[in-house]
Amino acid sequence: MPETILQRQTLQAGNRVFKEGEEGHLAYIVQSGEVEIFKDIDGVETVLGRIGQGGIFGEIALIDSQPKMTGARASARGSKGSTIIVVNRATFEQKLNKTDPFIRGLLNIL
Fold it and tell me: How many helices (H) and strands (E) would you count in the chain?
């Protein structure tokens, strides 16, 4: 099976990656910039955290296939936008199959 080509997305500040409640089937790695993780709490979008370069978010969707519990968008801080790498289930499973069996076992338990 050939190596899967990774997809990159360039986002302007404020562009959403995904919304709370959307189907989860992708994970993301921040290549540059920053991504905000936010949640609607009592009708107000509240930033729960920020993911910087090298950080991973949305990965739980590849494990449990549940709807997203939060939203994500390119951070407006610094307003340079962000570049993210999109990881689909096939790429995740391909990489997982090459990893240590102990790690695979732990992820299956989760």
Answer: 3, 8
- pLDDT, tens only, 36-65: 999 999 999 999 999 999 999 998 877 777
For residues 11 and 74, the answer to whether their CB atoms sit within 8 Å is yes
Using the CB atoms, write b or e for 87-106: b if 16+ within 10 Å: beeebbeeeeeeeeeeeeee
H/E stretch holding 87 reads strand 82-88
Number of neighbours of residue 83 by Cβ within 10 angstroms: 16
- Asked if 55 and 85 touch (Cβ cutoff 8 Å), the reply is no
Strands 56-57, 7-11: pairing is: unpaired
Helices of type H across 11-97: 60-64, 89-97
Report the chain's C-alpha Rg in angstroms. Answer: 15
